[in-house]
Fold:
Amino acid sequence: MERKKPTTIHDIAKALNLNSSTVSRALNNHPRISEKTRLMVQKTAKKLAYQPNSMAANLRKSSSKTIGVVIPRISRHFFSQAISGIEETAYAEGYSVVICQSMENEKREIRNIDTLISSRVDGILISPAIGTKSYKHLNQIKERDIPLFFFDRYIEEVDASKILTDDFKIARQLAQHLIDQGCKKMAVITGDRQASIYRDRINGIYETLKENGFNMESQLLIKETELIYENGEQAIREWLKQGVEFDAVLGLSDMVAISALKVLQEEGIKVPEDVMVAGFSNEPASALISPAITTVGQPAYEIGQLAVKKLLHFLKEENPMDAHEIAILKSELIIRESTIRTK
Amino acid sequence: MERKKPTTIHDIAKALNLNSSTVSRALNNHPRISEKTRLMVQKTAKKLAYQPNSMAANLRKSSSKTIGVVIPRISRHFFSQAISGIEETAYAEGYSVVICQSMENEKREIRNIDTLISSRVDGILISPAIGTKSYKHLNQIKERDIPLFFFDRYIEEVDASKILTDDFKIARQLAQHLIDQGCKKMAVITGDRQASIYRDRINGIYETLKENGFNMESQLLIKETELIYENGEQAIREWLKQGVEFDAVLGLSDMVAISALKVLQEEGIKVPEDVMVAGFSNEPASALISPAITTVGQPAYEIGQLAVKKLLHFLKEENPMDAHEIAILKSELIIRESTIRTK
Structure:
């Protein structure tokens, strides 16, 4: 009973060991493609009975007018803001949005993708789980000619457009700010460095410390955690117990920064006088507690908007995805009482 | 090309001017149904060519193993916790979950429902938008024999099972606590009282004030808002400008309570000495600011769990929905520094 799947540009790409985007360009007579490649692609397309855009065009005709979104956690300020940007843009263009939450769990993310494909969404925007180590489920989206976009986080091994923030650059600025305020020994609480966002931030911090002549052995403490609230307290208590010194805590989420601040205050350590505290992502609570916490404001709403705009542009164009497009949006350093020592 | 829709118990109910649940019971030989009704229902079922559970059974055979959830806002602590309860229970039973956000907007809620029906979800759990004044989209779910459950909020005009919290009772406890701590004039910031949850809470507060001999004209201030952060500041500034007195602020969301607290402190009014402040829903920030705010902890996770359990029980039973089942879960009064005057 199974019908033969129509040939896609990915089948042609595979047969010729080319990029899908090269095949797409060749079929569309793109000027950057050589005559030789163009003829070779057209010949293979004919051999494989490729119908230009047939499947994609069909999909679009039977469009569900729905965008599927997969995020790690809806409860994080960054993601709820990104969803707002996605929804405002989508609804204005007549599209609905369904959201799935992976809870940073690869198995659940695979289920999410299956569910969205079965729901016949027109496209998928994903910020992959930290725990995701395989890519089959993501490549499966592309094989079905459903457009896929990464936002905020991405997986290098999967070809797809990405809408990201400038994690590397803003982490440099934040580290430099702490050094300018007198930091001589920095304690960093990070998430899993296999994830693109934490790797980029840590690289930014490393580079800045090195530029400022820090000894990476003796002037940097680093602890890898899940970045949930309790991890801030755990990290600080462990360092205090070990008797190691530090004069600034940089948490790569506001949740761990807030938790760290609370423990420092409980232990009679003054913030920012004895130890400065900075976070990441501008959770509402970071502005409400005392002292208010220095953090990074990310363009979450704008990332969501841009992801939908790019997806809708692609759906209207009726051209196969041109992979490797990367948009990087600017974050903002928000300096508050928790790191202001000099006036 | 349109096929005739199979007869449902709702068609029989309509033809006989009976409740669907009565028809369901009659068809299942329920002891509470009279012999006369049972025979009448069976006769009409035969006349309308009713196939017992045919459509529902078919739907279940082609089950998508997906539960659709519609909530007002994913960014609210209560709803993100409820979603956690929904997802943990659903995934453990092999079901996926897709989430739609109405943003308290009726039009968007109608779109959400359309999207979930098109995605062939096995059931829908909804906490309706405050702005929802029509019920056609909700009745449409039931007409398609897709099970529908309300959680936290409900619409009286739509027959469906409900999983709720004890808003009336816990609001009484909270009001009584403020009176016990010396409140003589209470300023309440509420949401739209057409919504079940705010109506129930306000009724609880009214009853408690009356029991305690409060003069409702002179000892109660009330302001209806959208319950977003800014509304707390706006309400307090307005009351201060009008020169009216109050010694306790009760916000029906933590966001307005936190915003009110901040303005009071800015104006040099001491909390809790001059004015006590209490909120609702136990947002994480309410415990982090100083003074920590007294609030109501709602069984959000448990509500989500129970909603899925009831839905899955219904799907397994293969019995038409027995309407009017109501489960009420217990909230918890969380007393913190912002309302403790007596030791």
